[in-house]
């Protein structure tokens, strides 16, 4: 590793992977609850398990983003981190706050948690993905501000590259849009309207900048392609992401009580949202084809290419499937949405974090790349998890098509619960695909502990 | 015109940066989808579209067409001037393009003011939704184009563009022509064809 302070990334990555395991375990519980309704009831009801599954995902991705930023910013800016101590302190605060929140979800009823944590002072709880107690939300803001201060000060005193500026822009956007989680209007339309400013403008806006910057960083390192070429691509990708993604928020405004023009705006702009993801795929393959060196870390290259493909499929193609208002009229909130959500989050954000970890972790552990044996195992994990996710997505899509047909299209529409009974076969298959994903994850964990001839000691990086 | 740079020895050269062409294609696709949506909506509502279209100020639209075409012509002359190593003229032509571009903005703003006086809004009808959305989306592109033209004008005054070093100027010029091209489809589509 080139800069000593990059080492603070390590605990962030380890925590990210640990929480990832927790997220998948709760995913398996949820998948089973779809078919065995009273599994673990009343200890862990479905709504609690779902909250833990989605909240853990967001938190571990945030750990991943922060770790990635702490790793790549010193190298990009060619200077030590402004304050490694602050970074480490924030790590523990974030981890403890996150763990307490999850424990709170699991141990006390949600309403009790709300009254314990000051929800009557400022009501922010009870909204999907933003379920965190007020105290946790304030904690997130403090951690985010300290993190941004640390990163921004580092960039200010060092070399300014396009990658670090795009990353910074994305991270600042992430923090600023999170502030809308404190705004909870009584009017349900307004509530939903601004709720999407956090949820949509994160994953289809500023997170795309973070993702593009992380991917670009790893690609520069593993391919040795000129920074200039990669930066140009970065400009094109982020412009496309913002132009399509910001007004694309409209695809969430079709049926919540907003004016009708959102159906046109949302459909048109979000129909174009696959373009930046497609550009990212072309970008990744193009850079690897033009590589000027054979980097010993083959696994990281595989993850980088996989990110391009899976993000395009999950976010781009599966998003487009149900983004046009006339289609969404039928598919809204069905298993089609779940299919898209799973593959998009995995393909775009899970994979880009794993790409960065795959590249950075060996270096943080004092070698350019892991042993052949460890890499082969990691690549097995890549394929197991990725193929499992493809199956999860396909089974949920099949369930979704059947659901939409039985419940909303058919001449004799069935009720929601009666329809669910007809989907059991697909839910079972999804659960088995989930087990396969978990096996892939275990293989991934094992790859960190495999010994063997390490590839060349990282000569200053 | 003198051959500019060694690249031309190897056949036709792409004017401007490759990245801007990706960007232009994406922009044209965005407008293309918007135009297709317009056609789709109009086909279901021909009478309403025809009636409300007739109420638009076609003269203002025509004037704006002339202004944008003139600005594009000025930009072409600016590129030619830079290729002839005449930075001063290049800056002057760009200045002309900026003025005519601002002319477009002024005409458009008066048109919007009149529309709002008549309570035309995004929700007043499907046609009005398209009229306001399409023209405003394009309007924002004109604004961005003007920012780029001003940056290029500044560059030309410092003599930054010369034969063999035309990338910045050509890139900006290509963007401006795209803004012009989109208007050449938008104007007949929304204001004239019925």
Automatic annotation (TrEMBL), chain A:
The keyword Chaperone does not apply. It catalyses: nitrous oxide + 2 Fe(III)-[cytochrome c] + H2O = 2 nitric oxide + 2 Fe(II)-[cytochrome c] + 2 H(+). One of its GO terms (cellular component) is plasma membrane. It is an enzyme of class 1 (oxidoreductase). It is a multi-pass membrane protein. InterPro entries: Cyt_c_oxase-like_su1_dom, Cyt_c_oxase-like_su1_sf, Cyt_C_Oxase_1, Cyt_c_Oxase_su1_BS. The chain crosses the membrane at residues 12-36, 56-74, 86-108, 134-156, 163-183, 195-220, 232-256, 262-288, 300-321, 341-361, 382-406, 432-450. Pathway: Nitrogen metabolism; nitrate reduction (denitrification); dinitrogen from nitrate: step 3/4. GO terms for biological process: aerobic respiration; electron transport coupled proton transport; respiratory electron transport chain. It is found in: Cell membrane. Pfam families: COX1. Residues 1-461 form the Cytochrome oxidase subunit I profile domain. Keywords: Cell membrane, Electron transport, Heme, Iron, Membrane, Metal-binding, Oxidoreductase, Respiratory chain, Transmembrane, Transmembrane helix, Transport. Gene3D superfamilies: Cytochrome c oxidase-like, subunit I domain. Its EC number is 1.7.2.5. One of its GO terms (molecular function) is cytochrome-c oxidase activity. The keyword Transport applies. Heterodimer of cytochromes b (large subunit) and c (small subunit). Belongs to the heme-copper respiratory oxidase family. Component of the anaerobic respiratory chain that transforms nitrate to dinitrogen (denitrification). NorB is the catalytic subunit of the enzyme complex. Shows proton pump activity across the membrane in denitrifying bacterial cells. The mononitrogen reduction is probably coupled to electron transport phosphorylation. This is Nitric oxide reductase subunit B. It comes from Thauera phenylacetica B4P. The lineage of its organism: Bacteria, Pseudomonadati, Pseudomonadota, Betaproteobacteria, Rhodocyclales.
UniProtKB/TrEMBL annotation, chain B:
GO terms for cellular component: plasma membrane. InterPro entries: Cyt_c/ubiquinol_Oxase_su3 (IPR024791), Cyt_c_oxidase-like_su3 (IPR000298), Cyt_c_oxidase_su3-like_sf (IPR035973), Cyt_c_oxidase_su3_a-hlx (IPR013833). It is a multi-pass membrane protein. The keyword Nucleotidyltransferase does not apply. Gene3D superfamilies: Cytochrome c oxidase, subunit III, four-helix bundle. It holds the Pfam family COX3. PROSITE patterns: COX3. Signal peptide: none annotated. This is Cytochrome C oxidase subunit III.
């Amino acid at each position: 590793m080139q800069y000593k302070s990059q080492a603070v990334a390590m605990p962030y990555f380890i925590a990210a992977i640990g929480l990832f395991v927790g997220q998948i375990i709760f995913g398996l519980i949820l998948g089973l609850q779809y078919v065995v309704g009273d599994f673990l009831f009343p200890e862990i009801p479905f709504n609690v398990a779902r909250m833990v599954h989605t909240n853990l995902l967001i938190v571990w991705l945030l750990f991943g983003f922060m770790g990635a930023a702490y790793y790549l910013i010193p190298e990009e800016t060619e200077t030590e981190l402004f304050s490694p101590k602050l970074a480490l302190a924030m790590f523990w605060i974030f981890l403890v706050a996150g763990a307490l929140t999850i424990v709170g979800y699991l141990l006390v009823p949600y309403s009790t948690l709300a009254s314990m944590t000051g929800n009557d002072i400022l009501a922010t709880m009870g909204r999907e993905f933003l379920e965190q107690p007020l105290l946790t939300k304030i904690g997130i803001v403090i951690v985010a501000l300290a993190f941004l201060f640390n990163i921004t000060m580092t960039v200010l005193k060092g070399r300014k590259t396009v990658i670090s500026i795009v990353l910074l822009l994305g991270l600042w956007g992430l923090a600023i849009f999170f502030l809308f989680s404190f705004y909870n209007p009584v009017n349900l339309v307004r509530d939903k309207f601004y709720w999407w400013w956090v949820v949509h403008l994160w994953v289809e806006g500023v997170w795309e900048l973070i993702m593009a910057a992380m991917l670009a960083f790893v690609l520069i390192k593993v391919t040795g392609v000129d920074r200039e070429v990669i930066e140009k691509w970065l400009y094109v990708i982020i412009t496309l992401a913002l132009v399509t993604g910001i007004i694309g928020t409209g695809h969430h405004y079709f049926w919540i009580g907003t004016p009708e023009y959102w159906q046109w705006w949302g459909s048109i702009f979000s129909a174009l949202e696959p373009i930046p993801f497609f550009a990212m795929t072309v970008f990744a393959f193009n850079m690897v084809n033009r590589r000027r060196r054979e980097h010993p870390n083959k696994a990281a290259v595989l993850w980088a290419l996989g990110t391009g493909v899976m993000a395009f499929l999950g976010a781009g193609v599966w998003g487009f499937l149900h983004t046009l208002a006339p289609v969404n009229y039928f598919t809204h909130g069905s298993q089609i949405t779940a299919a898209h959500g799973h593959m998009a989050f995995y393909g775009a954000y899970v994979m880009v974090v794993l790409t960065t970890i795959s590249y950075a972790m060996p270096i943080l552990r004092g070698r350019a790349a892991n042993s052949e044996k460890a890499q082969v195992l990691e690549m097995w994990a890549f394929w197991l998890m990725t193929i499992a996710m493809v199956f999860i997505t396909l089974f949920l899509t099949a369930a979704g098509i059947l659901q939409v047909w039985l419940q909303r299209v058919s001449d004799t529409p069935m009720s929601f619960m009666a329809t669910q009974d007809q989907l059991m076969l697909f839910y079972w298959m999804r659960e088995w695909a989930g087990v396969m994903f978990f096996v892939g994850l275990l293989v991934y964990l094992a790859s960190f502990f495999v010994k063997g001839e390490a590839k060349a000691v990282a000569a200053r990086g | 015109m003198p051959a500019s740079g060694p690249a031309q020895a190897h056949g036709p050269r792409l004017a401007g940066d490759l990245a801007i062409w990706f960007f232009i294609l994406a922009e044209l696709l965005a407008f293309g989808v918007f135009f297709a949506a317009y056609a789709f909506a109009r086909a279901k509502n021909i009478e309403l579209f025809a009636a409300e279209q007739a109420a638009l100020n076609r003269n203002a639209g025509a004037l704006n067409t002339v202004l944008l075409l003139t600005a594009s012509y000025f930009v072409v002359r600016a590129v030619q001037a830079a290729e002839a190593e005449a930075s001063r003229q290049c800056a002057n032509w760009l200045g002309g393009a900026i003025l005519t571009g601002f002319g477009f903005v002024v005409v458009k703003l008066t048109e919007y003011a009149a529309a709002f006086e008549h309570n035309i809004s995004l929700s007043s009808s499907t046609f009005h939704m398209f009229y306001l959305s399409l023209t405003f989306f394009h309007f924002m592109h004109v604004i961005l184009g003007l920012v780029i033209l001003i940056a290029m004008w500044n560059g030309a005054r410092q003599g930054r563009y010369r034969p063999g070093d035309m990338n910045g100027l050509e890139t900006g010029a290509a963007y401006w022509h795209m803004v012009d091209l989109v208007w050449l489809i938008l104007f007949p589509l929304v204001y004239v064809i019925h």
